[in-house]
Specification:
Length: about 375
């Protein structure tokens, strides 16, 4: 990828930029999309000051941290929300019937019946989640560019790699990288009974090697990331000289996301980092799904004939998604329940990869 190649992708945009570059509107974008990372930090700060026991809640002899209960439910709620776009939206469903029916059923059965599939899907879920989160912000960037009537191809790969660095860079170079590795390792606990070469490799050698060499990994991230940042800015300046319209909303989103990502993964406790990054990601997702699907959702609940139908539909969707989140994160047991949770997560990551497309005008 070179700056010259990016220049050839630039379009001849109209001489006058559109008056508004927002996706939903000035207020909603500022709170639920652009400002969501900052809002997440503001929410977490007061929650991180009291002692952990301040949020303990005992139920049936089991002690829960209410912060973990909430964020776990919020994450699972936004994961299942994708089905309101993939399955409730008749137009989208007709385009991908096989992917929306046979594939999730097969994955659910596989994870429920095979510990190998269950464990491997669990590991994939940990890291696909990171990749998926970066692509959500990438998608917002491309929508903001489209709002400025820029060529959909101009700067696309630049934004793709920039968002990957903003999310994965602070994780790989931050203090919580090994927490991600340990989470992946915990998905493979069924291998502990097997002392073969494969189990030793996955449970001991690879985690040990990563822990011993994390310093070099951090140095590699910085060695690649800083030059790429310079290259990114220079390339966009060249596009600007050719007529590219700069979206301040996109710039603000990238700055907020990058700053919060570095702060969370580099300077906070693992619970706080996990809360911050997942809170704003889920909040953004609820906002964009409701904005694009509110008519379909209201119609699905047969509330479109009432003046208050949209508000009631939104309330029902939030409640239903959170009830699922509370169940799947804090009450589900057995391989079928665990398999269901992993299936929903994987389908969420996968579906989002093709049902939201700026170039195909799906949003």
């Amino acid at each position: 990828m070179t700056a010259t190649h990016e220049q050839t992708e630039s379009a001849q945009p109209p001489s006058k930029a559109p008056p508004s570059g927002y996706i939903i509107g000035p207020v909603c974008d500022s709170i639920f999309i652009i400002g969501a990372p900052i809002l997440a930090v503001l929410v977490v700060i007061p929650l991180s000051i009291p002692s952990r026991s301040s949020f303990d809640y005992s139920l049936h002899g089991v002690t829960y941290d209410l912060r973990q209960v909430f964020i776990g439910a919020f994450i699972a709620a936004h994961l299942v929300l994708v089905f309101f776009r993939s399955h409730i939206n008749a137009e989208v469903f007709r385009r991908h019937r096989f992917r929306f029916t046979v594939v999730p059923a097969a994955l659910l059965i596989g994870t429920a019946l095979s510990p190998w599939i269950l464990g491997l899907v669990g590991v994939v879920t940990v890291w696909w989640d990171v990749y998926h989160s970066s692509l959500q912000t990438f998608g917002f960037c491309r929508i903001y560019d489209a709002k400025q009537r820029n060529n959909p191809a101009a700067g696309r790969r630049l934004d793709y790699w920039m968002n990957l660095f903003l999310y994965t860079g602070p994780i790989l170079a931050g203090v919580h990288f090994m927490d991600h590795v340990r989470t992946s390792r915990s998905q493979l606990t069924f291998l502990m009974a097997d002392r073969g070469d494969l189990s030793t490799l996955l449970l001991e050698k690879i985690p040990g090697y990563l822990e011993q060499n994390q310093t070099y990994l951090s140095m590699a991230v910085l060695a690649v990331g800083l030059p790429f940042l310079i290259y990114y800015l220079v390339s966009y300046y060249r596009l600007y000289r050719e007529g590219y319209h700069v979206s301040w909303q996109k710039v603000s989103l990238l700055c907020a996301t990058g700053s919060v990502s570095i702060y969370a993964w580099g300077f906070t406790r693992i619970l706080d980092a996990f809360f911050v990054m997942n809170f704003f990601h889920a909040l953004q997702y609820f906002a964009i799904v409701w904005f694009t699907e509110q008519k379909n959702m209201t119609r699905a609940f047969r509330l479109n004939r009432f003046s208050f139908g949209k508000g009631l539909a939104l309330s029902w969707i939030v409640i239903l998604c959170f009830l699922y989140g509370l169940w799947i994160e804090h009450h589900v047991t057995g391989t079928w329940g665990t398999g269901l949770g992993l299936t929903v997560a994987i389908m969420h990551f996968w579906y989002d990869g093709f049902i939201w497309s700026v170039s195909k005008k799906h949003v």
